[in-house]
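hi!! sorry for the late reply, been swamped w classes. u asked for the two structures so here they r. pasted raw, havent cleaned anything up. first the sequence of the first protein and right below it the tokens
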Amino acid sequence: MGRGDADHGGVAGNAGQGNARGDKADKADKADKADRADRADRADKANRADNNAADAARNAAKNDADAARDAARADADAARDAAKADADATRDAARAAADAARDAAKAAGVAGADATRDAARAAADAARDAAKADADATRDAARAAADAARNDAKADANAAREAAKAEKRAAREDVADAPDAPDAPDAPDAPDAPDVDVVEVQN
């Protein structure tokens, strides 16, 4: 009877040690899951931060491209307006010279003075119109070039944004793929208590 109790005690001791090892494994599994969840959360936050930084850089580049395009278009408009003003001034000077020549010819009794003046005025008008057309064409070409440059800059900004995101993502994946440090070895289990034989005492 006593021996049986001792044997049962030994079995109970072994079962207790088995339960302890199971609890330890459960705790390690929970800690591992918590660590993985924490790393995933930190990776997600880092990903959002990297994306936000890449987006901000892309937006800044696009804003710069828009500003450069607007400045180039404004310069083109100003150059066109200046060329048109020069064309008008040249035409006005030519018309004034034609009028003066006509008046001098008429005073001298030269026939056809009015027709000559009219022809000179028409030539001056035609030259002015041609100069204005050239100014408009030059302005339009400059604006088109500014728009193309802006579009190229925006495309480059988008490509740079995607490249930056990919680079950051690859760097995070490299870190995630790195092997974990080896776990510390488990402490050896305590030896089982030796069975104790109980000798019955006969009265």
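now the second protein. again sequence first, tokens right under
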Amino acid sequence: MEEEHKRKEQSSAEGALQVQRVKDEIRAYVDSIELQDSVQWKAYCDYVDFLQAERDFHTQPFTLDRAGLTYPELRLGLISEVIRQRTNEVPGYKQEYEHITQLVEKLNAA
């Protein structure tokens, strides 16, 4: 029983350490961005905006407008369109967007 408790504590500590490592990796990525007009900054901001809009879409109470859409739904659609356009038009954006997506997925898995 005591041994099982120690394993659980160790597993919990390792999980917290892994989360901290991934958070540090994300902070280092953001800190390495030198220009706010860079591809890296655009990808990071778009991804954060997308996550916020997606959360709002699922959690905010809503009222339909004349077109039958909600504000969170419109915002999510607009951000998705910006991401789609930048993916197709901005060199290097797709790779940077995928990179930040992978970092956040690592954080969620930790």
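hope this helps!! also noticed smth abt the second:
DSSP finds four helices and no strands in the chain.
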